[in-house]
Structure formats: structure tokens, C-alpha cells
Design brief:
By secondary structure, the chain is an alpha/beta fold. Helices cover 36% and strands 17% of the residues. The protein folds into two domains: 8-199, Rossmann fold (3-Layer(aba) Sandwich), CATH 3.40.50.280; 227-476, TIM Barrel, CATH 3.20.20.
């Protein structure tokens, strides 16, 4: 390997509807991996920079319930703090760094802002190489001439799109750019050929996640994030389920997990180096492998790390009260549940793999053991009737303080999800490029009806929060 850096790259996170509590984990992994392979990396989190600059009253647009404000064009254009000067100022900052290769992480909620930035970069410095990647860059079904469309046609402004897991693929791309080789044989990317994008086939996923380095947090001002005590940690990639609206299984290819020893070593390092005592597991689900989960809990107890932790969790009978008690003793302070609906009919349509009765039992057990529950709900799934909606409303009311916080979103039909591929099966029509502007064939499930229901539960949650509080103080500190 050469003594000089293989390539310089600026990795950028544009503003989106989340990510103010902690630095972005995906870019931190990319940076660490590239640096260990002789690359020079600069990280730029425009999301937290913009969040810090806006007024206190405008910070509400980073609440989890406000995602639609960022991915629906009509709503995005009404964001009161965005204007030409904001875009130009950020472009000035990007260009002043003087790096020729720019990598953007793309999510549904960051796509429009990313587009505005890239279009201005193309006008001011056309020689810049633009690479797109992230959770919304996987929309490929086959090798060769493929239907490939990113939100708001972002792909039209990119030189390369990294499809799926990014570390090794991005390194390969940088090496080929550095050596002036053609990219059309590099696995895991799509490249423009004329008016089309040619996909070169999927790259092999990283076989052993223990081989990944500790994420790079050195470039961030950690004090600028809202949670001063927390950092994200990944213990697995992928998911063991295939909910019809979700695309995690598609993006990560297979479910893989790190060894408990490797995870504990990273947590220990982060606690010592950054003096953090809250670990937010970034997995699609923390209980995809029960042997690994139990090992991790035992190690946390034995080594007396005295941390608090939490993450996404799937309702499962195997996660009984004895295991929940073990998790609590190891520091588990909260679990995030994708319940989505309190109607068994809707849960069955979603292919969630559990019943609302099992959810009820699980929440009771968590409350008994002192683990806080944050519940995610989807409003307006196809086939949801007023009766189904009210089942969700009544379930939330019935559980009072047992659920510490509820977050709500209306259904977006993600590209290449099962739901998107089988719209006829669910009676859905989506004749616009916007993922949230679908309606049902019978005309009963519309953007308006979903938003009315969303407003109802948001008001209900605000009233409930005042009565019970949102989360335990120990999590918020």
C-alpha cells in the first residue's frame, strides 16, 4: 500500500428529521473503515449545524412526528428557516474544504435538501465527484439495466450510487477513482451510462462484523448534540422479519451480528474515551439473536460498567420477564417497540408476527421490571378502518403510564418494499413520485384522512404526556 493517502473524501449528512441527539453512526463507520485503509476523511454533519442555528420554535421540525415536513415537497417548501442563503452558505462551507470527492448519506427526509446542495455544487464546481449512499440507495432488483430511482431523482446528479452496505464498496470506488480506472465493473454500485443507470451487481456483505473498526467520532463536536451522555452502538445489521412496509431486510442483505465480547469492548472504549454512560443500540432489533443478547447482558453485569442502554426491540414470547429482569439489571433503561397498530387485523396485514394480546403482556412485564417503553405507531395503513384506528387510540389510553412515549407517523410506501411491489394486493394507488401521497382505491384512505387521524393522536399524546410524563429522568440526563 502506498505511503500517501489513497484518496480524500468529504462525507456529508444533510439535514433531515432526526439525528440531533447523537452523531450519525453510518458515516462514522465509513470514516473509521476508510481511515484504517489509508484514506483521508473529513466528516460534516450539516444536520446538527442547521439545528443549532434555527430558533427554538423551529426545532420542532426535527421531532420524529415531523418527518413528512422534510420528504413531501409541498411541506418542505413551507419550512420557515430554509432559503437560498442557507443553501449557499453550506455550499460555501463544502467547497472551502477543498476535497474533490463528496459522499452524501441519503434518507427520505434528507433527499430534497441534498438535491438543493448538489445542484448548486454542480453549478459552481462541476468537477466535483458526487457519490450517494445510505438507506435510500438500494432500489435495485437485478443486474444490468435496472429501474433505479432515488427520491426526487437524486441519481441524475450523482457520479456513483453505492447500493447497500457501504464500507468496502466505497473504499473500492475511491481506489478506482484514484487510479483512474473504470467504475463499470465495481460491484455494489450504479453508474450513469447515457440516460440510464447501470447496476454492477450486489457486493458481498461483510461476513464478520467484528472486523469493523470502532466508529470515528473524533471529527464531531459531541457537545453540539442534544444528548450529552449518549453515543450509538451497532450490534447487528439486518432483520429477521419481513414486515411489508419495511426495507431493512433488503438493504442489509442478511442478518448478521457481532460477538458479545466485541460489543462490550467497544462500549468500554466509548465510556472511557468519551465519558459516556448511555448507549443507544442502533440495530433494527436488539433481540434478533437471544444467545448473543444474554451473553451481552451477563458481561455488562459482570464487568460493572454501570451504563444505561436501550434500542429497538421486537415483541417475542422468548423475551419473558426473567430475561427482561436480566436486561434491566445490565442497564436496559428503555425499549423501542414497532407496535404500529392495536388491531390484530392490521398487524396480520403488516406481517408483524405478533398479536396485540402479546404486546399487552410484554408492556406489562416491562413496566414491572422498570424498563421504559417507547411505542411507534403507523397511522393509516391500507385497510385501516375507523374501528381499527380507535383500537389503537383506546390501547394507548388503557396503558396510561406503562407507555412512556408514543411516536406516530402516517404510512409511506417505501420503494421496493413488499407493499410497494404489491400495491394491488393492498388496494393502493400511488400515481405520484411522492411516497406519502398514496390513496386507497375505495377513496376512504387519503392523505387528508391520514393527516386528520395523525393530528388526533398527536393532540392525545400531548395531553397524555402532561399527565404521565414522557420518559424517566435517568434516560434524559
Amino acid at each position: 500500500m502506498r505511503g500517501a493517502a489513497v484518496m480524500r473524501i468529504l462525507l456529508i449528512q444533510c439535514p433531515c428529521a432526526f439525528g440531533t441527539e447523537m452523531p450519525p453512526l453510518g458515516l462514522s463507520y465509513l470514516s473509521a473503515f476508510l481511515k484504517t485503509n489509508n484514506c483521508e476523511v473529513v466528516l460534516l454533519d450539516l444536520n446538527i449545524i442547521l439545528y443549532r442555528r434555527v430558533s427554538e420554535e423551529n426545532k420542532i421540525y426535527w421531532d420524529s412526528n415531523r418527518g413528512y415536513c422534510w420528504y413531501l415537497l409541498d411541506s418542505y417548501e413551507k419550512l420557515p428557516f430554509l432559503n437560498r442563503e442557507v443553501y449557499e452558505e453550506f455550499v460555501d462551507e463544502i467547497l472551502s474544504i477543498g476535497i474533490d470527492v463528496l459522499g452524501f448519506s441519503v434518507q427520505n427526509t434528507s433527499a430534497i435538501f441534498t438535491l438543493e446542495i448538489i445542484k448548486r455544487i454542480r453549478l459552481r464546481d462541476p468537477a466535483k465527484r458526487v457519490i450517494l449512499g445510505g438507506p435510500n440507495c438500494y432500489n435495485i432488483e437485478k443486474k444490468g439495466d435496472a429501474y433505479f430511482r432515488l427520491p426526487h431523482d437524486l441519481q441524475k446528479f450523482a457520479d456513483v450510487v453505492v447500493v447497500g452496505e457501504g464500507e468496502q464498496t466505497l473504499l473500492n470506488v475511491l481506489r478506482k477513482i484514484d487510479s483512474r480506472e473504470e467504475l463499470n465493473k465495481c460491484k455494489g454500485i450504479a453508474v450513469p451510462i447515457g440516460e440510464k443507470y447501470i447496476f454492477n451487481g450486489f457486493a458481498a456483505p461483510i461476513a464478520d462484523l467484528d472486523d469493523l473498526p470502532v466508529p470515528d467520532y473524533e471529527a464531531y463536536d459531541l457537545e453540539s448534540y442534544t444528548n450529552k451522555n449518549a453515543l450509538p452502538v451497532m450490534t447487528s445489521r439486518g432483520c429477521i422479519m419481513k414486515c411489508v412496509f419495511c426495507t431493512d431486510t433488503n438493504f442489509w442483505s442478511t442478518y448478521r451480528y457481532r460477538s458479545a465480547e466485541n460489543v462490550i469492548a467497544e462500549i468500554t472504549f466509548l465510556c472511557i474515551k468519551y465519558d459516556r454512560r448511555i448507549i443507544s443500540f442502533n440495530d433494527s432489533l436488539i433481540n434478533g439473536n437471544y444467545r448473543k443478547l444474554l451473553e451481552m447482558c451477563n458481561m455488562l453485569i459482570e464487568r460493572k460498567l454501570n451504563i444505561l442502554w436501550g434500542g429497538n426491540c421486537r415483541i417475542d414470547k422468548r423475551l419473558d420477564i426473567r430475561l427482561l429482569e436480566k436486561m434491566r439489571n445490565s442497564g436496559c433503561a428503555y425499549l423501542i417497540l414497532g407496535i404500529e397498530s392495536a388491531s390484530n387485523k392490521i398487524l396480520n396485514f403488516m406481517r408483524k408476527g405478533f398479536t396485540i394480546e402479546e404486546v399487552d403482556c410484554f408492556i406489562h412485564n416491562c413496566y414491572k421490571t422498570g424498563i421504559d417503553i417507547i411505542a411507534n405507531w403507523i397511522i393509516g395503513f391500507p385497510e385501516e378502518t375507523e374501528e381499527d384506528f380507535m383500537a389503537t387510540v383506546n390501547f394507548i389510553k388503557a396503558h396510561g403510564e406503562e407507555i412512556k412515549r408514543n411516536t406516530f407517523s402516517t404510512l409511506t410506501i417505501n420503494q421496493f418494499s413488499y407493499l410497494e411491489k404489491h400495491k394491488e394486493e393492498f388496494g393502493v394507488i400511488n400515481d405520484t413520485p411522492h411516497l406519502g401521497l398514496w390513496y386507497s382505491k375505495d377513496g376512504l384512505n387519503t392523505v387528508k384522512s391520514r393527516n386528520l387521524r395523525l393530528q388526533y393522536v398527536e393532540v392525545m399524546e400531548a395531553e397524555r404526556s402532561r399527565e404521565y410524563g414522557i420518559v424517566r429522568q435517568e434516560i434524559d440526563k
